[in-house]
Design brief:
single chain, alpha/beta, TIM Barrel, two-stranded parallel sheet, 37% helix, globular, glycosidase, hydrolase
Amino acid sequence: MSRLPDDFLWGGAVAANQIEGGWNRGGKGISVSDVLTAGSHGVERQITDGIIEGLYYPNHEASGFHSRYKEDIALLHEMGFKCFRTSIAWTRIFPNGDEEEPNEEGLLFYDSMFDTCLQYGIQPIVTISHFEMPYHLVKEYGGWRNRKLIDFYMNYCKTLFIRYKDKVKYWLTFNEINMIIRKPWKPGGIKFLEGENKLQTEYQAAHYMLVASAKAVKLGKEINPDFMIGGMFLHPTSYAATCDPADVMAHVKKLQQAYMFLDVHVRGVYPRSHYKFLENNQLVIETLPEDAVTLKEGVVDYIGFSYYSSSVVMADPSNQNKSEGNEISGYKNPLLKGSEWGWQIDPVGLRITLNWLYDKYQIPLFIVENGLGAVDTLEEDGGIHDSYRIDYLRRHVEEIKKAVFEDGVEVMGYTPWGCIDLISAGTGEMKKRYGFIYVDKDDKGNGTLNRYKKDSFYWYRECIRSNGEII
């Protein structure tokens, strides 16, 4: 193979809660992202008890995509997108999450959005739950610490699969499912209670989410056997800090903990290392006898994953030279440069990740997030000269091609994150921009929301047109 497959899925990725806005329009309910205030680099976003007047919640308006999706999708078509990864806001379909009947106005919105994509030949890649579950499910049931969430999620999935069975082929069950460990609010609606065993709660919630994912895969295949349903995983690419065997073993343990999620997604069973981890930490996870069968019957068709940066792992916990990244802890690699937000830029790490995953699981891989968060400047003539982003993306595309051409990895597609500027999930900032399309809005919510094409817009258009040959 000397070129990428003709059906390679070039596109971009966003999330409903970070781009749509219209947080209280069309019958939409309050989500866990709607109660997150703005933060900044190094300052955590605050989770409030409901909506408090006078505080700024950046996800409420976000990038205004809910009102502008037709013009935005037209811009994606101008770039030549083959696919568009987005998510459905659970709270547009079931405002509280525990209703029996869906909100028709919310369903109609996604009907129109998907129709617009298909009109331009753009395949929707749809994440079912992407960091915005209903806030009511948190208040009433405790979020994903409660097994009842499986039934609510399945009712939601059934509604989507039936409604959009002829419009959406590619699905992802949960965004970055392994984020339930360490950062459980956004994926699981879990805010720890005083004295609560955090690890116990996180791994219990993880089990319920994995069962729900497997049930969703099985149900989706029953409704439309042509569905391609994947899991989505935040990949913690890292290296042992030194050749000290203690550092190497620490790295092995880190990957074992993370890969537990993919072992269940792909093989339908927990690895033995996971049971040892539970035993060593005195954790007892409640399961039902039928869960083992469910997990076996609901394995995924492909692995979707996010990759932005890498870090190093060391056995010495006293080292303070911590790195920053996509909610993953680690230490700085002295051989790599970092972004403005301290995320270490490592294009070769993407090739390494592709090889690790394909060697281990032997199913198709889909890079559904990758990109550079940076401060962009809108010039007086309306231009945005983001050569740094082009350089970042070019180097990562080069490594994807090497993984395919030289290593034999099966890669389905590539959807860089935040193809239209959106609200940062981690910090709530707008100035941390990823997109090919600039959105006129600042960190305080001021701006016209007008769209402007960055230099990277034209670069990516040529990349797609040439199927990755001209980069």
